[in-house]
Amino acid sequence: MADGFVDPAVLDKVKVGKGYIAAKYGFRNHWYPAILSEEIEEEQVVPAQICGEKIIFKRIDGKVFCIKDQCVHKGVPLSRKVECYTKNTITCWYHGFTYRFEDGVLNGIVGVPESNVIGRKRVRTYAVEERKGIIFVFIGDEETVPPPLEEDVPPGFLSEGHVLRGRRQDVNANWRIGAENGFDSTHIFIHKDSILVEDADLALPLGLVPLHNGAFETTEEDGGPKGVHDIFSPEAINPVFEGKIDGETVRMGRPEGKNMLPQTISIWMPCALRVQPWPAPDITQYEFYVPIDGERHIYFQFLGKTVGSVEEEAAFDKEFKERWVEKALIGFNKDDIWAREANQEFYADDTGWLRESLFEADGNIVRWRKLADEHNRGIQGPEHVR
């Protein structure tokens, strides 16, 4: 491996999905959620790392800007010691090089005001969009015109009247492990003792067995989001509530729950999951597995609900904070975090992609890998994270 990236010897042996396997640091020229709007106040500077690229955000007159977190002079991180002498700029703590957030231009050097490099050097800037209380950043080639944000989030995520509440945390596992954990239909087994099962009166099986290839559908129209769906209809999938070993029942699921959720789970480029509905019949859960580097990802969890009034939104906000954060996003999904971090060691040296033994129920994972391989806009490589 070079600098933590995928070993070329492994890629030579991969038969399907070379691009996906190579994307240890994520896909290039895509939008990613980076931070929540509530995490950056006016004139506050917030550092982040997305797909291995170190960046800094600043809110100026309400608008969020983003530049590379690296001084062009000696390459030190600007965020190591934040010094902003004007609201529109940041000054390097080392030698006083000062950059505008709007265009990244070096517009002064504190203490050397007549330098010839002023106005001739710049740090790179990143496109930013703030929607639904989330700061999105476009990680890609600076000369590339970003596509509409709607192409890189699940359908309905940005719809009018659809309100979102969420949280984020870092997870010590590669982003692909996070994505495949979320989309893995048989991983439901690890949730069998979750606090959410009784709280939400869920009918929770021990496994979900696809009956044919029609259990998976692909969305890949031009100009729209690209994704793969699990269809949880009786004709497409068999929920298994009775677990047996050698013909003997050893564990029961929970068939008596009144809420047989979800109806569909789907995964979308570049790194998002949609569980619909979940954890209640009128709520949708979204997850993003945003690469930090080759070994970690930011786990964004959002619950979305369509509301018709300010009062309904306030009620949802209260329910989110008082019930769903503890019972669903933490209580239920802590099992997923534990599983991803346990799985990281197997894939860390890249040979796990060759040593894994997939089975019939992993058909949706295979479909996802193929779609990601065909529809990514580029692979994040070593040359992009220096």
From TrEMBL:
<dbReference type="InterPro" id="IPR017941">
    <property type="entry name" value="Rieske_2Fe-2S"/>
</dbReference>
<dbReference type="InterPro" id="IPR021028">
    <property type="entry name" value="Homotrim_ring_OHase_catalytic"/>
</dbReference>
<dbReference type="Pfam" id="PF11723">
    <property type="entry name" value="Aromatic_hydrox"/>
</dbReference>
<dbReference type="InterPro" id="IPR036922">
    <property type="entry name" value="Rieske_2Fe-2S_sf"/>
</dbReference>
<dbReference type="GO" id="GO:0051213">
    <property type="term" value="F:dioxygenase activity"/>
</dbReference>
<keyword id="KW-0560">Oxidoreductase</keyword>
<dbReference type="Pfam" id="PF00355">
    <property type="entry name" value="Rieske"/>
</dbReference>
<keyword id="KW-0001">2Fe-2S</keyword>
<feature type="domain" description="Rieske">
    <location>
        <begin position="31"/>
        <end position="137"/>
    </location>
</feature>
<keyword id="KW-0223">Dioxygenase</keyword>
<keyword id="KW-0408">Iron</keyword>
<dbReference type="InterPro" id="IPR050584">
    <property type="entry name" value="Cholesterol_7-desaturase"/>
</dbReference>
<keyword id="KW-0479">Metal-binding</keyword>
<keyword id="KW-0411">Iron-sulfur</keyword>
<dbReference type="GO" id="GO:0051537">
    <property type="term" value="F:2 iron, 2 sulfur cluster binding"/>
</dbReference>
<protein>
    <submittedName>
        <fullName>Terminal oxygenase component of carbazole 1,9a-dioxygenase</fullName>
    </submittedName>
</protein>
<dbReference type="GO" id="GO:0046872">
    <property type="term" value="F:metal ion binding"/>
</dbReference>
